[in-house]
Amino acid sequence: MVEDSTAGSANIVGRRPNSMASHPRIRQYVVELCDAHAYCTQSVTIQQKSSEYGDSQSDRKTQDAVPSSGQSFKVPAMSWRQNIVLFSVLLLLSLNFIVFNVHWSNRPAVKRHKDMDSSQEMLRVVHLDLKGAPPRIHLFKTLFPLIAAAGANAVLLEYEDMFPFEGILKNASAKNAYSREEILWMLDYAHQSGLEVIPLVQTFGHLEFILKLPEFRHFRELSAFPQEICPSNPDSFQLLVRELIQQVMSIHQTAKWLHIGCDEVFHLAVCERCTRRHLESRLLFTEHVARVAQFVRAEFPGIIPLMWDDMLRQWSPMDLADSGLGELVEPVVWVYSEDIAHLLPHYVWYMYGHVFPHVWVASAYKGAYGETAVAPDLQRHSKNNLAWLKILQATKGVQFRGIVLTGWTRYDHFAVLCELLPVSVPSLLLNLLLVSHPHQPKSQVIHLWTRALACPPTLIPDESLQSDPFQWHLRACAFPGSNLFSAVASYVVLQAQVDTLYTDVTQRQGWLTMYNVRHNFSSPWRLLEALSKGQQLVRELTAFRNSTALIMGQYFDQFTVDEWLEQKVDPLTERMASLQHFVHVLVARDTWPRRPIM
Ligand SMILES: [Zn+2]
């Protein structure tokens, strides 16, 4: 998942003609919903006017005539035709209002709010994204007690292709997937540490790990993009989604929640089969999610489906209420930036609070600020988590069930690796401690953090995390993963040295530019000087590669070790090798032509 940049522009009225908004009671509700959002109130007025004139396409035309206060406006004199249209619209509005009132007053979400146990402890959930890079099982044996001590009481396991699928799904498993026994051990470690385990199964988008395979390509929404299934193909649910859920749930028999994903369904209602149905994409989305959630609830009684909220965020409150999803799923509202209010205005909370009996939120501890990042930016992640704390404390009318600290390993199935789990232990523990001790001063949380990381007593981190957002001095501590954290700190230094040398000799200095290379014309003495620095770096890179392979092998299988080294270290070596090659070609010459050089 990538950071959402569109939610801030959400229009609560949406594309649906908002006929009910003209009734005083509904209008009061909608205006209340838009509290503190002037543009929203204005939009309601525009939609109201458009609706009254039976012209849903007239936003731009009527915008100039709408009073900026969003209150009333004079209805101009109308012909008898307009009067008939107005009468018909008002009749429709009245009918809609009656339906809406019955619907709204009977919503189970409202009733359940009254029955809720307000003393129920918030769940602090650590997301473990296992896709294509499975940590060795023993890491969880040491990690789970550590995160439990830092305040975690649940983990969200996203297996993707690391689950040992069977039968028709056999090929959906990576060749280095966990065995069933290994997963049972992992679940046992979690249980021993007092952690709930919530499995995550993607059921709509982000199914690349399956849809990439030839035998599953006919389930795709678009033939060219192996991301989403087609919700109008009955086999998508019957043969694929049901099977996925059943196989994963067969090993999670004590789970209380199942996360069904459903985020970033970028291509929706675009295939021929979907377009033939002439349904809005929102309704197609709802139909599929409801079908999945109903299946989960019927097949596994007591289990509550969770889903990412991004596809719902821009719906109108009426659409969300009408969807019925409030009775079927609990949304997990994710934002990884520091400015959460920008992406989630007040009215979104009002809407979610009225529709859903429980709402979850999601911050990030890794994998949110760069697809190729090697270590988490602790300053940004802590700001994101602290911003969520403020939202949790200040938002009224929403029953929050838990916060998920997400930690992405790849941005999707096809992407390269981003921050590895052992390297992210400092970020994970810091953010867990921050959300677990909301009323403690940050200095005390930092103290708890350095103790949890087994740091030497002399180590005093910068409380603001400003001096070094990556906190590389933590390499002196003894947390699980600290040796890999230290190796990655060395990598960052090596990467900077390679970048500097390459830029210096190819751009700043005058003997190894592309001009020199193209015309085979340079000073051997100057080139050999650059070559000697490059050779030293190549030796350091080789030594780093060998030692890091051994360290990474303590946490990951050889496939993941090789992948990381190929993605991160080899490009540096290749850059140095290309310099060496150019130098060798250029110095092979011992006589040069007269200028001008052709
Ligand atoms: Zn389709």
TrEMBL record:
Catalytic activity entry: Hydrolysis of terminal non-reducing N-acetyl-D-hexosamine residues in N-acetyl-beta-D-hexosaminides
Molecular function terms, GO-annotated: beta-N-acetylhexosaminidase activity
InterPro entries per UniProt: GH, Glyco_hydro_20_cat, HEXDC-like
EC number annotated for this UniProt entry: 3.2.1.52
A biological process from GO: carbohydrate metabolic process
Transmembrane stretches, start-end: 84-104
Record bears the keyword Transmembrane: yes
Domain of life, per lineage: Eukaryota
Assigned keywords, A-Z: Hydrolase, Membrane, Transmembrane, Transmembrane helix
Residues in Glycoside hydrolase family 20 catalytic domain copies: 172-316
Record-stated family: Belongs to the glycosyl hydrolase 20 family.
PANTHER family the UniProt entry points to: BCDNA.GH04120 (PTHR21040)
Full protein name: beta-N-acetylhexosaminidase
